[in-house]
Amino acid sequence: MSHHIFAGRHYRNRVHAGRILADHVERCRESGRVVVLALPRGGVPVARQVAEHLDVPLDVFLVRKVGVPDQPELAAGAIASGGVVVLNDEVIQGTGITDSEWNTLMRDETAELERRADIYRGACEPVDVSGATVIIVDDGIATGATMRAAVRALRQLGPAAVAVAVPVGPPGVEEQFPEADRVICPTVVESFRGVCAAYDDYEPLSDADVREMLSHPRCR
Which residues does the UniProt record annotate as the domain Phosphoribosyltransferase (predicted)? Predict the structure, then answer.
């Protein structure tokens, strides 16, 4: 596993962060076919800069946490693009989730995943990642829970390699993703106060913003 951690910097906005991040993903060009996937919403403008720099396809990778009933922040598993299901067996067994409860949770989260996929992609099929080097991008890492679920889910789709690429994260960020082949993080903040603290402009993005960014010709 190869990790690339660089000295810290501050970002004007997500586009600026994406351009800086793009400078650090050059080695991924050596890996044959490359695909860039973004975690929406905030990861999309960052990932678009990376994809344009490498001149490779860009897509979103949708991940939905499946929370425990009455404890929605506790993940019993996750579902992701491509029909991938990741189970947290320890949590499922420890909380006594019944088959009926699990089926209800899965139905609800799958419906939301499909709704978002329809908003972001429309009739377009997801980009094929099998055999490719996949760079999965977000605008930063805090707890890393969503990104870890994304990496685990991606592994089930048969990529040649998975690289996690984010502009900012806390100390030890590379250790959060043992299933990734490479972790690229230009800014590691010793006194980490959250992703938003690394940006001058950290405005929320709408679904329409994401859809517009993915409509760029290089996204397909």
Answer: 18-189
Give me the residue label for tokens 């979103």.
60
- 24 in helix, strand or coil? coil
Q: Which of 189, 145, 200, 196 is nearest to 5 (CA)?
A: 189
| Tokens at 20, concatenated | 């800086």
Structure-derived torsion over alpha carbons of residues 158, 164, 83, 114, reported in degrees to the nearest 10: -150
CA 50 to CA 196: how far, in whole Å? Answer: 20
pTM greater than 0.85: yes
What is the SS3 assignment for 116? helix
Helix (H) or strand (E) holding 154: helix 145-155
Cα R_g (the chain), whole angstroms: 17
